[in-house]
Amino acid sequence: MNFIHFLQHIDQKLLLIINGLHCPIMDEVMWQISSKIIWAPLYAVLIYFMVRERKQKFWITLIAIILLIVLSDQISVFIKESVQRFRPTHNPVIQNFIHIVHNYAGGTYGFVSSHASNSFAVATFISLFFGKRWLTISMYCWATAIIYSRMYLGVHYPLDVLCGAILGIGVGAMIFYLERLTIRRLMNK
Questions:
Q1: CA 162 from chain center: how many Å?
Q2: Which residues are CB-contacts of 171 (< 8 A; sequence separation ≥ 6)?
Q3: Tell me: the pLDDT tens digits for 25-84?
Q4: Would you report the helix, strand and coil content of the chain in percent, each value rounded to 5?
Q5: Do the Cβ atoms of 172 and 72 come closer than 8 Å?
Q6: Is 109 helix (H, G, I), strand (E, B) or coil?
Q7: Distance between CA 110 and CA 89 in Å, rounded?
Q8: Residue 132 per-residue DSSP state
Q9: How far is CA 71 from CA 98, 106, 160, in A?
Q10: pTM of full prediction above 0.85
């Protein structure tokens, strides 16, 4: 067995363990954690504090956040379409062993996870923006809960979410430093 096959084997085994820990209550909890709408109040509060922090320069931060989401999402979609690795729910080898919640199987391909990329991009940007240890820990716990929910729901392998998280961290850091650079340049004018 070569290294790639070994990695895929471990990836499948870990996914089946995580997905196999299901129960009706956790199915609903993980479904909600994976939902985008449940996080709207958190985003609203964070945006409020960002507006207070930036005041007149908030429009730069707002553009940065929009760019952050678009980049992390679209890069992950590009990778999915390029790599074309089946999601567990679409993989003929293991799909019959996957516990599916609310008949949700996701799109055909899953590498890399857009949920992971987006949530870790936001967590990284927010962590760097505020520089508060408690907020950094909270944001990364939030992002980790989201990626765990994607594996629990059987729509992503561990490597899908791990690579998505790495992509998101990179995009989040890059956009944060571009936002800071832009604000510094505007302040020097």
A1: 9
A2: 68, 71, 72, 75, 117, 121, 124
A3: 999 999 999 998 888 888 888 888 888 888 878 888 889 999 999 999 999 999 999 999
A4: 80, 0, 20
A5: yes
A6: strand
A7: 10
A8: -
A9: 31, 21, 17
A10: yes
